[in-house]
Design goal:
- By secondary structure, this protein is an alpha+beta fold.
- 54% of the residues lie in helices and 14% in strands.
- It contains eight helices and four strands; from the N terminus they run H-H-E-H-E-E-H-E-H-H-H-H.
- A hairpin with a 2-residue loop joins strand 2 and strand 3.
- Helix 4 crosses helix 5 and helix 7 packs across helix 8.
């Protein structure tokens, strides 16, 4: 695991601690409000047709102020992950990025996108909270944990696998 991935998870843990985010599900929209980063739900369809890729979200900055844009056509759990992902860009990348907008394309495997995903996974599904909830279950079921953390079933399965935990 590369150092950028470890630092992404460590940065997410710092954010969780600093903003006292330890109740499930993690309230990413409240975190955005605390950071004074508005979240706007937008229709990306015309842009998606132009670029030929599905857009989940973006973070833009204008005169030092940040705004997160999320695709309004996504499911609630996908929107939560997108917001957490864009917060990953905020904490890991955009402060030093000269571009005014950073767009997150689905399935982009670049190091920055992967690090933002790692940040989002740790923010929404903190390792310590996953292990705590996992240990309470007689039969650990990923679908039950997904509901508790308000994330998609595939996201929870991926998280459990990445933590070396078994699931049903």
């Amino acid at each position: 695991m590369g150092s950028e991935f470890l630092s992404a998870a460590a940065e997410a843990r710092k954010v969780l601690d600093k903003y006292d985010l330890n109740n499930l599900p993690i309230d990413v929209e409240k975190l955005c409000r605390d950071l004074k980063i508005p979240v706007h739900y937008v229709d990306f369809s015309s842009v998606e047709r132009k670029v030929g890729k599905k857009i989940s979200g973006a973070i833009q900055k204008d005169d030092g102020a940040y705004t997160i844009l999320v695709n309004e056509d996504e499911s609630d759990v996908r929107i939560r992950f997108t917001i957490a992902h864009e917060l990953g860009h905020y904490f890991l990348h955009v402060k030093d990025d000269p571009r005014k907008i950073v767009v997150s394309f689905r399935r982009d495997q670049s190091a920055r996108e992967t690090a933002a995903n790692k940040f989002a996974a740790e923010l929404l599904m903190p390792k310590d909270l996953i292990k705590r909830e996992y240990s309470k279950m007689v039969i650990p079921v990923s679908d039950t944990l997904a509901k508790k953390f308000n994330v998609s079933k595939p996201a929870m399965r991926n998280r459990l696998e990445s933590l070396g935990l078994m699931y049903v």
